[in-house]
Write a structure and sequence with these properties.
Length: 337
């Protein structure tokens, strides 16, 4: 029976890459029904609510979401809907596989997975101004929250992921040398959990040194796990190792819900031009198919992406080609046939 999923196309390039993704999913015979819903800027304009009730009701019912990027105004304005959704469904693990697709880049055959804690750390958004000497904004303060519960479940998820996916090693990246309590707790919990997985190699590394090593010698890593903000930053760095944001997929995984989205944002600079690369969202949809045990369909789509990108005729602009989103999508559909 087809699985019903909630689809949020998002804004900016979101609707363009979502259309492309659904076309490919349909052509590949994915057993899915789509419940289309609004969120973010478009929902604010049309329904005066960036996270409408109907969207939440659909997500609560279906428990599986495929989401395009949502623009988040910086500074003032509404809170990130991405963060709201992750919180609402307690999607504690953000899984970001990074694989070489376009050959001839900086590195060949990159195959890494970053697992980012998705609910705690500095991104809890506990912030305030401190007034002094008549200046109400003389200082600002932000709180990093790490709980044993939160650290343990994400580190355990990383080890289980490694075991289930035949991976050899987990690296926990942290800053426990400076942030002795918060990052220290994350590291301590990591050490404890690692003992339960003697079959998986394990190491811990300081986050800044990890960033350098990822650039110098990415092959020394396999699965990486870290706190929320560190994971946000390093996942973009890792996307850069394989040709940029256009290729990077992500799954936000909870115990009873999951949301799949590209790592990139709404790309306002190219929105509406029909040239966005839909691969990030399409590969996110493949992670969703894996999650729904439709992994054979996912593998066929991944193979089609590989074929089309290697052939080189229908590459989008960010891949150094001249194809539109539609032309690239049509090439994918032909490759699936
Ligand atoms: P961005 O990822 O939207 O764009 C960065 C650069 O990469 C731009 O030059 C863009 O044209 C290019 N790019 C991104 N995706 C591409 C694709 N699929 N094909 C071709 N080129 C692509 O990041 P930026 O500009 O920092 O953020 C724009 C907005 O997106 C912000 O409001 C931000 O908050 C939001 N955002 C939303 C995310 C989400 O919904 N999960 C994630 C990241 C950012
Ligand atoms: Mg990010």
């Amino acid at each position: 029976m087809a699985q019903t999923i909630t689809v949020i196309p998002g804004d900016g390039i979101g609707p363009e890459v979502t259309d492309a993704t659904l076309d490919v999913l349909n052509a590949a015979g994915a057993e899915l029904e789509y419940d289309m819903q609004l969120a973010g800027l478009i929902a604010l304009q049309e329904l005066r609510n960036p996270l409408p009730q109907a969207t939440m009701a659909s997500a609560e019912k279906n428990r599986i979401l495929l989401k395009g990027p949502l623009t988040t105004p910086s500074g003032s304005g509404f809170r990130s809907i991405n963060v709201e959704l992750r919180k609402a469904f307690d999607l504690f693990a953000n899984v970001r596989p990074v694989r070489t697709i376009v050959p001839g880049g900086r590195y060949e055959d990159i195959d890494l997975v970053l697992i980012r804690e998705n609910t705690e750390g500095l991104y809890v958004g506990v912030e305030h101004y401190i007034g002094m000497h008549g200046d109400p904004r003389a200082a600002a303060e932000s709180v990093m929250i790490i709980t044993r519960f939160g650290a343990e479940r994400v580190v355990r998820y990383a080890f289980e992921y490694a075991r289930d996916n035949n991976r050899k090693k987990v690296t926990l990246a942290h800053k426990a040398n400076i942030l002795k309590y918060t990052q220290g707790l994350f590291l301590d919990v990591g050490r404890e959990v690692a003992e339960e997985f003697p079959d998986i190699e394990w190491e811990d590394r300081i986050i800044d040194a990890t960033a350098m090593q990822l650039v110098l010698d990415p092959y020394r890593f396999d699965v990486l796990v870290m706190e929320n903000m560190f994971g946000d930053i390093l996942s973009d760095l890792m996307a850069g190792l394989v040709g940029g944001l256009g290729f990077a997929p992500a799954g936000n995984i909870g115990h009873d819900a999951a949301m799949f989205e590209a790592v990139h944002g709404s790309a306002p600079d190219i929105a509406g031009k029909g040239i966005a690369n839909p691969t990030g969202l399409l590969l996110s949809a493949c992670l969703m198919l894996d999650h729904l045990k439709q992994d054979e369909t996912a593998d066929r789509i991944r193979a089609a992406v590989q074929t089309v990108v290697e052939a080189g005729e229908a590459r989008t602009v960010d891949m150094g080609g001249g194809a539109t989103t539609k032309q690239f999508t049509q090439a994918l559909i032909r490759a699936l046939a």
